Amino acid sequence: MSTLTDSGPDRGVDPGDEASINVDRWPAMRPPRPAPLRAAVAQVMLRRITSKTGIRISFPDGTSIGRDDGPTLRVIHPDRFLTRLGRDGLIGFGESYMAGDWDSDDLVAVLTPMARDLGSLVPKPLRWIRRWYVARQPAAEDNDHRGARRNIARHYDLSNDLFAAFLDETMTYSSALLSDHHDDLASGQRRKVGRILDQAGVTEGSRVLEIGTGWGELAIAAANRGADVTSVTLSVEQASLARQRIAAAEVADRVDVRIEDYRDVRGSYDAIVSVEMIEAVGERWWPTYFRTLDARLARGGRVGLQAILMSSHDRLMASRRSWTWIHKYIFPGGLVLSERAIDDICAEHTSLRVIDRLHMGSSYAETLRMWRERFTARAGEIAALGFDRTFRRMWTFYLAYCEAGFRAGYLDVAQLTLARSGEAPDDPIRWDVARA
Predict the structure, then answer these.
(1) CB-count burial class (<10 Å; 0-12, 13-18, 19+) for 128
(2) Which end of the chain has fewer CB within 10 Å, C or N?
(3) In terms of Cα–Cα distance, which of 265, 316, 306 is closest to 288?
(4) Per-residue pLDDT reduced to its tens digit, 287-309
(5) What is the CATH number of domain 141-420?
């Protein structure tokens, strides 16, 4: 990764300091041209946001709108903030934070009520203007074979050291399964892995396919049970470190990590596990993904799937073609499903059915909180890796944005167990989270 311009760790630096922004690297951070009409629309929006959410917005001249006791969004550059918001909606809102046009002492507290009321923040008389500022997903981010490799590389190949700076010792980048708020992150991650392997029926001698290797923690756990694991990923960086960790765990003879598209996998497997990979598949390829699970699963086998979910199927349908701040800066080509979408796709395109569901959104909110706090505490280390302050603000916003989504109930995450119709066990699967 090339080194980016940086002004050092974040402490004591004005977030709106232009000298710290490399506008060649971050062209959207250039001060926007004045757009009085759009800024006026943004002002109307802000008043509605404060009345709906209970947050407070303060301005440099000492004025404010909203409740005095509400979590505070502090505007630093009003003209820029209003122009970006009025011109680009939620993308502009995120870019304004990256550029330092606004800040908050409690970012999650500001974002959570906004996430809770996201569907109603725009008044009905103004919804027609969405066509002017809500962008459509670009065709270049489609997850065909070439696009999927490119999209995955943009996020997961940033730097293994970056992820190691805020993940726990298991190097697991997905929701932990926490028994309570005092649980440590590594224990919660191992509990999550243990449960999904149990649900998929992974035991000694099982032939296991893992779609989405991560950094190898699940493959190691499956191999330690005596399973033979084929794990596929499109991330070169992840594959490299996963192989090192697998070798260090002395299970390399049982795990084959391949840089391979899930659509190209062949063979038959007793269990298939996939943890938070489906979010990168894209709507066009959802049927292909589930048909692949069906085709690769041996008779009597089970699938353990952990998926981030939109809590509202209607909200998914309304927003699924939108190009968002998350797409532009964090997960190009990605899209979160709803639980109903999974059920419908399986019913229409496969013989698979969901036979067990565990919802764990509160665990993800806590997982993200711990990641965010580690990321913030290690700003200096991350800066030393070559990631500038704009990048760090971007990732701080991303982690807080996601945490707020789970705290608000806008997002959920679930472990789903799938089996073919007629092959589900007679007795329901039981798993005690507290005792695991």
Answers:
(1) exposed
(2) N
(3) 265
(4) 999 999 999 999 999 999 999 99
(5) 3.40.50.150
Q: Which of 400, 397, 409 is nearest to 368 (CA)?
A: 400
Contact yes or no for 244/220 (Cβ under 8 A):
no
User: CA 261, CA 46: separation in Å to the nearest integer?
Assistant: 44
- Active site includes 402? yes
Confidence band for 7, pLDDT divided at 50, 70 and 90: very low
Encode pLDDT of 380-410 as tens digits.
Answer: 999 999 999 999 999 999 999 999 999 999 9
Question: What contacts 24+ positions apart, CB below 8 Å, involve 313-320?
Answer: 313/338, 313/339, 313/340, 313/341, 315/118, 315/119, 315/410, 316/341, 318/119, 320/283
Q: DSSP secondary-structure letter at 390? A: H
Burial of 140 (0-12, 13-18, 19+ CB in 10 A): exposed
Marked catalytic residue, from 178, 227, 297, 402: 402
| Structure token pair of residue 213 | 């290797």
Task: Give me 424's structure tokens.
Answer: 């589900």
Query: What stretch(es) of the chain map to CATH 3.40.50.150?
Result: 141-420
Rg of the chain on CA atoms, in Å: 22
